Request: fold
Amino acid sequence: MPATLRQCTALVGLSATELLRQPVCFLLTFASVALTVLLPMAASVQLGQQGHLARDGALASELVFGVLLAGYASCVTLHNECLSGTILTVLSKPVSRSALFLAKFLAVTTILLLFILESTAATLLGTRLSPVFFELDTLGMILVLVVPLAAFLPAAALNFYTGRSFVFWGHLFLALALILAVVAIGFVDREGQRIPFGSLLEWRLAPACCLEGLGLFLLAAIALSLATRLNTSPTVVILTVILFAGLISNYLISRIPQNQALIFALRTVLPDMQSFWPADRLMGDGAVGFAFFRRSATYAALYTTGVLCLGLVSFRNRQF
Amino acid sequence: MTPATPTPVIEAHGLTKVFRDFWRRPKVRAVNGIDLNIRSGEIFGLLGPNGSGKSTTMKMILGLLYPTQGTLTVLGESPQNVATKARMGFMPEESYLHKYLTPEELLRFYAGLGGLSGRHSRARIGELIEQLGLTSARRRQIGEFSKGMARRVGLAQALLNDPDLILLDEPTSGLDPVACRQFKDLLLDLARRGKTILICSHHLADMQDVCDRVAILLDGRICADGSVRDLLRQPDTLQLTLRGLDESNLPALLSIIERETGCRPDVDHTGRSLESLFVETVTRRQPGP
Reply:
């Protein structure tokens, strides 16, 4: 393996491991999953459409907790390491600042990927559990309540007997348990009768969750660039403002009088977060089409690259 | 034929660092036009009170801070040259380590950054873990370590790539006297193997024990520098050490010295250092391996 690739692998691996061992990252992920899965059980309204609340709640939960996770993880992995001095030791090795910065971004995206995977599984479970004509899916509920036990008991045992990190293994086992729960529930209907796999699951939500994931990657790039100079609180606040401004950017821009330069500037600076919000496209039997997904992915890739370039300039000029 | 002058490993001329505020106005002149010439194979100490510019100088040598003025070369290259860092090892003042990792994981990570290959890195990690007394703690998270243990891990990562230039910021702080002595022996051994070592420390006794040359920094300027021996020598005072002298002969001896030289000598028993007494006592009481 070439030396640079080995360095990058080591940096991404370590930063991702550190983030996976962060209790706050774990709690944010677990809170999002729990909310996604439990909200449909408590729901007593349908908002005019079967599973509407479960679906929109799950997507909103993924976006909000994802933003918090992206902001927090970026600051922990970059700004806190600058403050604590850990980064001094890394930069005293033959590692370029560019490689370190990009590795940090890849580490944050790794955590987000795991989060998106868990959120997608939780969303599929949650929508399946949502009440049909106010009747709950009892079998599914039992299965969902078993998930945290199945994830945390082996993690606790590992911690007790071998001293391995509970948070790290709990995080990984939670992802595994959620996937197994989706597989298990995919084979049975509400009465426990065997059905063809996945026929009662809303598979169209999977690309919708991934679309939101693209938006989270974009926001993670912004968060990491901010984290070259700012600590957690201002970064998360700015990120939240960018998220909401991005969600209403089309409306905001339409209110501006015809000033082409200003409109162009706002369209360039403000991310168009509507490209990553799939709820409107899921109304009725709608789905996130491939063409829309591809357009959003291209937009996310270009915007993320631009933001990372700015972040890199900021990080290269930073003195420790 | 005169012996060749050792190659300078660190060379600085008029090195200056000014920290600026948000409006780019000069705030602090942390280092003020210092000249340094650290030669291959020597142990060089940078001394000074807090805020004298020691750590700033070290960070400029590591390329973590950019000098405002002056020139600086490290191993013949600019400190910003990434490839040069493969020949350097740095142990920071605090043990800035990843607290969720075990020593083994951490060293494997730094071996990856240093470009050490799999088998070579495993052998080197095992060797350092044993040499620095980390064997029993190799699978515990660093966050649970005492300061002294964390310092050992910090030193292990600095020595991982067998560097030519080793930079140590307050290396003995937090170490108990036995570990401190082992540490100093290790430094002397490294210097014998031709490694160049730059140490910043407040522990003057430790510096005196290991350094060949020192520079004293105050307000960003070098106030005194030279070999430890030269700086500490009092030219008008000579010390005469006699081993196995029968004390009954002392009055006669003193009167001869006084008569012949006109100087009245001070007489006292040579004392040992508290450190050597402590190390000997503890080592004697500890059970063998």
About this structure: The mean pLDDT of chain A is 89. Chain A touches chain B through 29 residues (CB under 8 Å). The CA atoms of residues 67 and 240 of chain A lie 7 Å apart. The radius of gyration of chain A is 21 Å.
